[in-house]
């Protein structure tokens, strides 16, 4: 299992990546992360909502309420135009990070 310390710098990229595809809500995003990583990374609820707050404060995502079938209202998140820009910037940063790390760990398996 990957530790949250290792993933901390990439949580925003993961969330923005998911929201690039479609609007979503917290539980759905959490499950998608768990599913796509085959359980190797489980983002804690506090980490997820802390990231939502930070991303929304920086105008990278926007929340809105949407009624569900049983009358409950669910908070959805969508990526903003600024968030799309940030996503591509973070993607470049991720690729550069991988290249740097590879210089140190190449062939050490």
TrEMBL record:
Put simply, this protein is called Transcriptional regulator, PadR family
- Taxonomic lineage per UniProt? Bacteria, Bacillati, Bacillota, Bacilli, Lactobacillales
Q: Which Gene3D superfamilies match?
A: Winged helix-like DNA-binding domain superfamily/Winged helix DNA-binding domain (1.10.10.10)
What is one Pfam family matched by this protein? PadR
Q: Which residues form the Transcription regulator PadR N-terminal domain?
A: 15-85
* UniProt source species: Desemzia incerta
Q: Which InterPro entries match?
A: Metal_resp_DNA-bind_regulator (IPR052509), Tscrpt_reg_PadR_N (IPR005149), WH-like_DNA-bd_sf (IPR036388), WH_DNA-bd_sf (IPR036390)
